[in-house]
Amino acid sequence: MTPSARVQSAIEILDTIVEAAEANAAPADRIVAEWMRSHRFAGSKDRRALRELVYGAIRACGPVPANGRAAMLRYAQVEPGIAELFDGSNYGPPAIGKNETPALGGVAAPWVVKHLGKSWVSGDEAEALLGRAPLDLRVNTLKASRDTVALPEQGEELIGPNALRYPAGTNVDQWAAYREGLVEIQDHGSQWACAAVNAKPGETIVDLCAGAGGKTLSLAAMMENRGTLIASDTDKRRMGNLPPRAERAGAAMIETILLDPGKELEALDALKGTADAVLIDAPCSGAGTWRRNPEARWRLNKPEMLRVGEIQTRLLKIAAELVKPGGRITYVVCSLFDEEGKDQIGSFLAANKGWEAQSLDWPIGRSHGDGTRLTPFHDGTDGFFIASIASAC
Asked: How many CA atoms lie within 13 A of 43 on its CB side?
């Protein structure tokens, strides 16, 4: 493909991404992957270039652009050399018209930026949400240690005891150590979220929103494969990924429970009052993961934030019924909006006098309300709010 043809193809992919974002349809990564599958003529260099163009344009736009061409014109404002590829050549985009208007830049739509500001996220903190995330690994202590694991490339040792960092795009999934379960891909901040659970061997732990099980596997390693570890979720498809991952990691003590939305306690009835700890990795806006999913900004809307907020409140109530006296809840959202993090925990503690916040004495993050906040700008992680609360004995 010529450079101009790549730009035109990227515009067409962006058209589909914009339409999908407005319709809450397929996410950008799936759309890009489908385009690659259906255009076999594109070589490896073309594919890499197309990804750079598509995601560069997404990051360059603030609000949802009118279309893919407007998004690419915006990217041309910040990336030298792209504008000259609008040359009208075969398979390339038509020349830029005098009256054409690029999409708007910025962090996100104005109402989103305002919400971030109310949550003390602005300036460099907000801009950092659109940077490109590195690739972080967690060494699986069920099979290896950071000091002894043999990897093809030497990573940067992070503050987390089992964390290593590599440049974005490192093909870790091709490494033998990854295939054998010696390492797992997990953001450094996510690793600290698991550390907040303080899971110990022999305990009963419930991962209430386990998804595909990334945090569940981390908890299994902390528990040294001893005790009871329940992975539960309402998403059957995502939970279907956990058993093979657990087998690869050597995590043999994980039990899975599929939940019916709105009737979660029916499936978890036998666990009421028995859990030492419950991890709530709650559904949220995902604003803390925009470095990895920048197009998620375009999907954000007020009704959806209200919907997930109600789920977060309900999950805290469910978790409170599962823990035994003296038990603990770790509440995590990959969001920096206070209504999803600080305010949720503040409301729960105000309504449940027998509970109190526990301090997270960490070498990372900053105190925020009754929890800890991690941000890309301050900590080099995804954005998280993490709180640990304990019930009275």
From this structure: 5
